[in-house]
Amino acid sequence: MSTTNMATSSNYWEDLRKQARQLENELDLKLVSFSKLCTSYSSSINRDQRTRDSRSDSGSSQDNMLVAMTTELEQLLANLTAVNDKMAEYTNSPGISSHNAALMHTLQRHRDILQDYTHEFHKTKNNFFSLREREDLLGSVHRDIESYKSSSGVNNRKTELFLKEHEHLRRTVTLYSSVRHMENHQTDSDLHETLTYKVL
């Protein structure tokens, strides 16, 4: 391999390492932020049970932020994977064998970092989506219960109004019956007086 080719080759390797380190640093910062956001999401749900009724605007904006961060982290991991693949290709290039042990060690270190970040990302993401799914399920059940209670309340109110109306009608009928009874009694009394008067 000529000196020019070695210099170019060495620059290519260093460029790949630089890209890998930049992506790793960015991933590290974003994974910390992602983890904190997931933790705050979990805490806000535990603190505020009203989110089960319906997600608040802050809850849905937090959801949107988490989904956006998930997409961004997936892209960064894909980019880092691509850089690692290019580094692996480079170590297998002809003429690189003299430096291969050191390069392989460096490549393995970058692969381990990628594996750790990928594992951490998937663990945090799965925890978040499990929590959100659980909250959606509990929220749905809670809304169904509240809906049942309120509809039962409406039915109870209707029943209560019906019973009041029924009681009012019953009293009216009783009053009417009493009046009719008194009229009949008066009529009977008048008839009796008339008959008595006629007899006399």
TrEMBL record:
Q: How does it sit in the membrane?
A: Single-pass type IV membrane protein
Which key words are in the record? Coiled coil, Golgi apparatus, Membrane, Protein transport, Receptor, Transmembrane, Transmembrane helix, Transport
> Which sequence ranges form a coiled-coil region, renumbered to this chain?
66-93
State a single Gene Ontology molecular function.
SNAP receptor activity
Under the cellular component aspect of Gene Ontology, which terms does the record hold?
cis-Golgi network; Golgi medial cisterna; Golgi membrane; SNARE complex
In which compartments does the protein localize? Golgi apparatus membrane
Tell me the Gene Ontology biological-process terms attached to this UniProt entry.
endoplasmic reticulum to Golgi vesicle-mediated transport; inter-Golgi cisterna vesicle-mediated transport; protein transport; vesicle fusion
Please tell me whether the keyword Glycoprotein is annotated for this protein: no
Looking at the UniProt entry, the stretches that span the membrane are none
> Where primarily located?
Golgi
Q: Which family does the entry's similarity section mention?
A: Belongs to the GOSR1 family.
Functionally, this protein is described as follows: Involved in transport from the ER to the Golgi apparatus as well as in intra-Golgi transport. It belongs to a super-family of proteins called t-SNAREs or soluble NSF (N-ethylmaleimide-sensitive factor) attachment protein receptor. May play a protective role against hydrogen peroxide induced cytotoxicity under glutathione depleted conditions in neuronal cells by regulating the intracellular ROS levels via inhibition of p38 MAPK (MAPK11, MAPK12, MAPK13 and MAPK14). Participates in docking and fusion stage of ER to cis-Golgi transport.
Protein name per the record: Golgi SNAP receptor complex member 1
Q: Which source organism does the UniProt entry give? A: Lates calcarifer
